[in-house]
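Journal club prep, notes for RB
We'll compare a predicted complex against what the paper describes. Inputs for the beta-D-fucofuranose case:
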Amino acid sequence: MSTKTPRLISRRGVLARVAATVALAAGLAACSSPASAPAPGAAPAAGEPIVMGFSQVGAESGWRTANTKSIQDSAAAAGVELKFSDAQQKQENQIKAIRSFIQQKVDVIAFSPVVETGWDAVLLEAKRANIPVILTDRAVDSEDTTLYKTFLGSDFVAEGKKAGDWLVQNAPAGPVAVVELQGTTGAAPAIDRKEGFAEAIAANPNISVVASQTGDFTRSGGKQVMEAFLKSQPTINVVYAHNDDMALGAIEAIEAAGKVPGKDITIISVDAVKDGMTALSEGKINFIVECNPLLGPQLMDLAQKVVAGEPVPQRVVTEETTFTQEQAAEVLASRQY
Ligand code: GYE
């Protein structure tokens, strides 16, 4: 029923389900009132292209660049007219962009919410304007699941768990001190990757996270936080970075401190973008959990269905894998991003 991430389902599963059912009942009741009844079929006239307003998080990482390209290329291929807006990692910019899409009466709004909370008001405005909303990449934390049609993206808790499981399986005997470079504070992938990892490493009481701070998913953020960790932490055995860009920044800091990344300090990250995979194949990173940014084709497909009034699943989860150093060396040449 809920389209939220498994994290939210597991934490407040029953409550969320009850709330969703109540919201659904309220929604059905509202349908009988002409004032709030959205006229179905705001679809464009035959022959007219679908107009999609898309609010992107920003351009903070290699993952984001690949995601933007995938969306722009797929829109062109599907004949969807794309109104693209870059929020520069600011929620207020995304809210402004969504309001402007509503004013422009686009056929469908898609967006990747920079943080999880604080969306209900603007999503209600879209709903009242009868413009369907698709969440892509990141989830929102809202009890009202009628505010959007579907959520297309990864299972970030599972990603964090894969990272932690690898460490549990590959940790040396004795105490293991981990420093964590978190993604953007309040963002679904930062919250969920932290949670999944913590859950997995609980299996080995020798492994502990000794410091954890945000590097905002950027290379410079990862470098800066790692420099501080190297000064404040007497022993660091492992870096767990919520994305490749921060791991790459951490590598620069580790090398500048005269240590060997991948040997003196084990590095685990998430994304598997080209620069990350290159560092993995060179032995500077030890393990990467894949997060697929190529969401464009599925997004256009969902948008066409939603605009046509066809049913879509409430949650579409992206399929992903993991890479060791040997596997990275094998697939590097054929990596698209
Ligand atoms: O992992 C990170 C990016 O939301 C899955 O955002 C995305 C994350 C991705 O900045 O590199």
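Talking point for the session: The pocket of beta-D-fucofuranose is lined by residues 60-61, 63-64, 137-138, 189, 217, 243, 245, 270-271, 291 (CB under 6 Å).
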